[in-house]
Amino acid sequence: MPALWIAHVTVTDDDAYGKYAALAGPAIAKHGGHFIARGGRYVQLEGKDRPRNVVAKFPSVEAAEGCYHSPEYQEALSHARGASERELLVVEIDE
After folding, report:
1. Matching InterPro entries, A to Z (predicted)?
2. SS3 of 89, please?
């Protein structure tokens, strides 16, 4: 079943996070993911407000997990650590 990778992010260092974003996109695509929302308008109804919200769709939970643990994504993530506060989850969806 397909899965959504959902990230809620507050960027604290634009330059470093820009390096993350440049590397993360290709890593996500390599693992079959594609973005369905990146930034953009949102309404916070509950919980902690994070001004950047990203959703990518993957073929499966396993593909999303594989992406996260891949060397390519871990390299990207090294630029996000210390440059952002974030929550990331993967959830299976019914289609």
Report:
1. Dimeric_a/b-barrel (IPR011008), DUF1330 (IPR010753)
2. strand
d(CA 43, CA 25) in angstroms, rounded, equals 24
| Distance, CA of 26 to CA of 23 (rounded, Å) | 6
The rounded distance, in Å, linking the Cα atoms of 31 and 84 is 23
CA gap 40, 62 in Å, rounded: 27
Paired strand residues for 14: none
DSSP element (H, E) containing 6: strand 3-11
How far, CA to CA in Å, does 67 sit from each of 4, 17, 50?
A: 12, 18, 23
Distance of alpha carbon 27 from alpha carbon 68, whole angstroms: 9
Q: Which two tokens stand for residue 25?
A: 């996109």
pLDDT at residue 61, as a whole number: 98
Query: Residue 31 gets which letter from DSSP?
Result: T
